[in-house]
Target: 23S rRNA (Uracil-5-)-methyltransferase RumA
Amino acid sequence: MIAERARQSGETVVVRLAARGDGVTADGRYLPGAVPGDRIVGEDVMPGPHRAAPVCEHFGRCGGCQLQHGDEEVLANFVKGRVVGALQSAGVEAEMVADPHLSPPRSRRRAAMRAEMRDGTLALGFNEESSRAVVDLQECHVLTPDLFTLAQELRPILSALMPKRWICGVTLTEATGGADILISNLSPSREVVHAFAEWEPTIPVARVSVEDGGRTDIVLQRGKPVQTFGGVDVAMPPATFLQATADGEAALVAAALDFTSGAGRVADLFCGLGTFALPLSAEAEVLAADAAGPAVAALEAAARRAKRRVRTLHRDLFRRPMTAKELAGYGAVVLDPPRAGAKAQVEALAASKVPVVAYVSCNPSTFARDAATLVRGGYALTEVRPIGQFRWSTHVELAARFVR
Model:
């Protein structure tokens, strides 16, 4: 209706957001910075009812957020639209797509940032949009307050340790027992070890590791970073994957539990530390498989201590997917692959007789590709739950149920 009125008046209107956040008009133009409901009059963009005032001074430069200029309706429609659009492109239709779940501001407990020394001054933050330049964050509305404070505490020590014109990766993770910090492109020299040993003892950090040349070394250990899944504490190895927000993780776990309810045996593939395996093990017997050896070992130790019915398997599921024969007898499979999806594993699943597949994805495009394979193999996509865990970002996640 809005688009029709605008057309009759010689205007055009923005009707949706493209995958990278650009506004798309009714006549097919792409306009960076526009949101649905904005009117285009000549070369001017007239703000519409869904435009919001960005909350962060860095918005427009920082690549951490692309959608702060849209209201809650814009965010929800974008998250849902990314999932539905990807499925439509793959020729797959879901029986039901739920309303999106959006994580709140200041909820990211894990962040991969960059530190850059330029002209003797440290910049610490996220990359600029479509650039390798680092935005020096003076505020952040996606990180938890504690994580942002920790980043500021790192500034003096990184400034002292990093050579001129040097760039490091800095991954910060909140954990029980203190934060976990991983700094890449920094060697475990005597100077580095001494600097962290002298770090202010009141800073709530459990461990600092450095990664150089593919090797990870611990340079400070004050405690053991721990994450809890399904009521079970798991000790975190350095550089272990973790869902970005506790809120988003809870939504994904709830979906996996709902989708696999009643399955006596569940295979959790790409299991990581046990995000899904441990909650599932409260009611089911679980096989947990992943190529990340330290994570699998940590999960195994935690499950043994808690007397949970979890059997672990250290296995590269890209090169050696679980076969249909190996999956015989399982009532459900949970998949949580990286952004590349799980092409080989899904092909094996499509040839299996597993009744239910719960697929957790961080990439709607590769999910849609894999969904098409499962549907061709005889599965029906009965439900999809879109999840905007990375608030104000074009990064979209989801959980889906396939039933044979």
User: Anything to note?
Assistant: Residues 19 and 82 are 7 Å apart (CA to CA). The chain has a mean pLDDT of 95. The chain has three domains: 2-51, 76-104+236-403, 110-173+177-224.
